[in-house]
Design goal:
Elements (H helix, E strand, L loop, with lengths): L9 E3 L5 E3 L7 H20 L42 E4 L7 E5 L2 E7 L2 E6 L11 E3 L2 E3 L6 E3 L5 E3 L8 E2 L1 E4 L2 E4 L1
Antiparallel strand pairs: 1-2, 3-13, 4-5, 5-6, 6-11, 7-8, 8-9, 9-10, 12-13
């Protein structure tokens, strides 16, 4: 049995006139198949990747994606709760950062490896994107997989991480450490 219905070549309109020619009868199958094709087309369009509008593309195909993405937070990180200074965004007070150690504030690890030398790194571990949580002596620690980083240059000193923490240039501005 089929859902397709046939009609005569001559049909009478509501005004009583007769028209000639074949007329296709709709079927539920045809309507459902059309709706399914439309839905599949919308789904495929939604899953596509737009590679035409990115001027800062990093991917091999020109899009804003990459086969080797940076960990979360490793791009230019926002300053967090810091106030603005005439020279840049205030990241911390000089008095808050111990010599030979550092602090974690906002999105940054701010260190003072030697007197008067200040460094700032992303607080996001380069291994799997966990935030580092502790500075002990000359090491920055990530609790997720026990990676450690040096406070002087952010380089990995232990654990599974193989890349340094991304550095943000900073300078001393009066009593503050600011983004340079």
């Amino acid at each position: 049995m089929t859902d397709v219905q046939t009609r005569a070549d001559v049909e009478t309109t509501s005004a009583g006139e007769q028209t000639a020619g074949p007329r296709l009868a709709g079927s539920r199958r045809v309507v459902l198949a059309g709706a399914g094709a439309l839905g599949a087309g919308c789904l495929l369009a939604a899953c596509g990747t737009d590679t035409s509008g990115s001027s800062s593309s990093t991917g091999a195909n020109g899009g804003d994606f990459s086969d080797n993405p940076k960990p979360a937070g490793s791009a230019t990180a926002p300053a967090g709760d810091a106030a603005d200074s005439s020279s840049g965004t205030v990241l911390a007070a000089v008095s808050d950062v111990p010599e030979g150690g550092g602090i974690i504030k906002g999105d940054y690890v701010i260190t003072q490896p030697e007197a008067g030398t200040f460094k700032a790194f992303s607080k996001i571990c380069t291994h799997q994107g966990c935030p580092v949580t502790k500075i002990d002596g000359t090491n920055i620690f990530c609790p997720c997989h026990n990676s450690t980083f040096d406070i002087s240059d952010g380089s990995p000193t232990g654990g599974p991480a193989t890349k340094a923490l991304p550095e943000t240039k900073v300078k001393k501005d009066g009593d503050n450490i600011v983004a340079a």
